[in-house]
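Rotation project, supervised by the postdoc (A.L.). Task for the rotation student: set up a whole-complex structure prediction and record inputs and outputs verbatim in this book. Inputs entered:
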Amino acid sequence: MYKINRFHLYVILCAAVLAEVVIVPYFKIYGAKPDIVLICVAFFGMFLGPAAGLEAGLAAGFMRDIFTLDVFWMNAFIFGLAGLMAGMLSSKFYRESRATQIFFVFGLTAFSMCLHYFLSVVMAKSSHLLFGSFFFVTVAPSSFYTAILAVPVFAKFTDAFNLRDYRDIF
Amino acid sequence: MHTQKNKIIAVVVVACCLILVILNSRTISSPARIRLSEKTSPVLKAYNAAVTTVRRFLPFASLREENAHLKGRIELLQQKIVEYRLIADENNRLKDIVRFRKSIPFSTIPAQVIGRDPTNWANSIIIDKGYNQGIRPNRAVISTAGLVGRVLEVGMNSSKILLITDPNSKVGVMIHRNRQGGILTGRPDGTCKMIYIALDSDAARGDKVITAGYGTIFPKNIIAGEVMSVGKEPGQLYKYAIVRPTKDLSKLEEVLCIK
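Outputs recorded:
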């Protein structure tokens, strides 16, 4: 029985962050690109529990902070929170359902991007960008794109790591 | 008795042959032969077709190995064509950059884009040149098409460039046609927004937006983009314009950093 461990978790997160820096921008559609790191964090939170979600979120966010020009630790905070939420809320839903996965990842992406917006506005004083415009131009398409991509990624991960009947190991 | 009978048979056979030879004239034997030949022709045709088919396929069997070898060579050559096209594209881009460098009045450092911002919020790129190659913070970055952004963080051998499409970027610009000024800020969808345009401005779609040269970072008259639409937000004393950068900044591969 092949199960996931911390080594797999960090390898997947490193690969996802590097892919986001180098490859993913080429898959932009009308300014929206999928957040594959968030998909990974959501997966770890949903299938491995809140502790794993938090750990994956903090690690992935920290790695993203290295490559972006955001306020340092902002991504770590947002992704940590997103991973924790994914872990805590996953017990309330049937996580194997594709519809649940799409809905869940869509909500999580929208939440993390909106939180990013408010923190950026407060800390970087980018008040000229209206929230409504940001939501419809960037948040909604990116969340939708990410949610659609989450289904095959989740299926691949659950099969690869045999997680269909998996319980919290963290 | 037995030898007598054999002799009679031999004589009859010879006599029959003689009769047949005598009868082998055009009038008697030829029509019979033609009729017989016609009766057997379908069989002959079928046999011939079978033989022809076999003869047609036999060389394929022997050429299978050569075919596989040639297919391998075609794949290799196709791969090489793709590689050569990529090299030719890169060569053209670099030629454009060299030509552009000669045509502008600033001294520049060419750099290659090695990474892009992973978030959906910020718009920045990472280049392969840093402090060791002469890059310094707050210097303008351009491409052959126009303005790209400014250097924000400098490492020893790499730097981060804040693109003009980042929400935190602010550049003093003016509309080329009527020289009316404004501030160009970024939007996460890859476009820019020119704010603080005077209400009486006749800015319109298609107008070119250039840098105004205020401040010390961006030199004057660098093209920043083109106006896509003009509008006014309720309660504001100024107009705004949505500006499309001259080039899709998410697909940049080479940039020039002004020294």
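Student's summary: Chain A has one domain: 6-24+33-160.
Supervisor addendum: Chain A touches chain B through 35 residues (CB under 8 Å).
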